[in-house]
What we know:
Elements: H1 2-28, H2 31-42, H3 49-69, E1 76-82, E2 97-102, H4 114-133, E3 135-136, H5 139-144, E4 150-156, H6 172-185, H7 190-195, E5 202-206, H8 210-213, E6 214-216, E7 222-224, E8 231-234, H9 243-256, E9 263-264, H10 268-293, H11 300-303
Parallel strand pairs: 1-3, 1-4, 2-4, 8-9
Antiparallel strand pairs: 2-5, 5-8, 6-7
Amino acid sequence: MKCKWNWHRIALCSLLCLAGCVSAPMKQATPARVAAEAPVRAEPVSPQPAPRAPERTLAAGEVAHKTSLAPSTVEYHVWLPLLQAPHLNWHGPRYQMYTYVLYNGPANQGNLRYDQRQALARLASLLDTVGRSEDLASAEENQVRSQQDTNLFLIPALTANQPNAGLANYSIGVSRVYLDYFSRALAQNQKLHKRLRKYGPFLLATLKPIGEIVQIQADGSTRIDTHQPILLVDMSTAHEKSVAEVVRTFKNHVADTPMTDTTAFEPLRLRLISTLLKLNDAIPLVSNAVAGSCGLVGAEAACK
């Protein structure tokens, strides 16, 4: 009986100990303890909004600054012969956008390489496209509509007496002077700066005359308004038959998208069109090469 009584006592003690162990964590989960600990957990959370306030203020200031610089889009396009040097003050009407039609290749003369002839062909196509699709800017037109929704194509010219834009009146000398100004403006953008060394032709769009963006001082130093965006359309590798489509796509782009950043305009679709046109030109060459090889010894099987 004594052993049995001790066994029951030991079992009872074990049950009491087990009950004590289970009840301990239950005390920790009581509402009183949770309520007591809640202020301690909340203390590090409460000061967090304080440092976020200045960050939101800066972000709002930056957005407001960018919005204030965002220009309007353009709806109309005209062109004008460009004769004056870029350092001279702009005396004409103010336009929403100025697009310079520039070229860095050789003049139209004999003994040109194939790539040089192609560059001249692209320039001729560009001048023809702009001259045929856009009106020559005139005083009467300026009185009819505001220039604030108009883009002005500026074409370097030998004389202002020619009513049509064309290769015969194009001034490569004036074009290179303006390219020098744009090279200075893009000096910090190596990718775009390097492109201006090609033959072109180029469309370079700005919101102010380039002579107001780049100012060369008397001591030779250059002051550049880095807040002014420049949009570059590089047609150095375009097919001459794709130039008209490049101009049309460019005009659609500036009609829908305000110009806010310095960048190159090069949609993938335009590159594909140019590539397909080049392949189309190459097909007769390949066909002729294959036809010529049929007369060679051992090539008869390949020509069947």
